[in-house]
Amino acid sequence: MTPVHFSFTSAFVLGFMGLAFNRMHLLSALLCLEGMMLSLYIMMALWALKLDSMTFSAVPILLLAFSACEASAGLALLVATSRTHGTDHLRALNLLRC
């Protein structure tokens, strides 16, 4: 494994571990998701460049579009929950109390 691949794989794993173990704020969970998507985007772009094929060149752009949609939906949920619950703590979000 090259150092470049190792660094982006470790960035993805660190984002996943931050998402799994740091469950205090919704904003920190969204930032961990964005870090994971950014490392996936860079890995897919490097993979498309390594294969040197035109069929795989659209995959990173498609992933980036889905990442932007995920970020906008996450920020909309963050604003909605902070308005209704008054905080962005994940402990305040209880599905049984809706």
UniProtKB/TrEMBL annotation:
Main subcellular location of this protein, as a coarse class: mitochondrion
Top-level taxon: Eukaryota
UniProtKB keywords: Electron transport, Membrane, Mitochondrion, Mitochondrion inner membrane, NAD, Respiratory chain, Translocase, Transmembrane, Transmembrane helix, Transport, Ubiquinone
Keyword GTP-binding included in the entry's annotation: no
TM stretches of this protein: 6-22, 29-49, 61-81
Topology class, membrane: Multi-pass membrane protein
Subcellular location: Mitochondrion inner membrane; Mitochondrion membrane
Function: Core subunit of the mitochondrial membrane respiratory chain NADH dehydrogenase (Complex I) which catalyzes electron transfer from NADH through the respiratory chain, using ubiquinone as an electron acceptor. Part of the enzyme membrane arm which is embedded in the lipid bilayer and involved in proton translocation.
Protein known as: NADH-ubiquinone oxidoreductase chain 4L
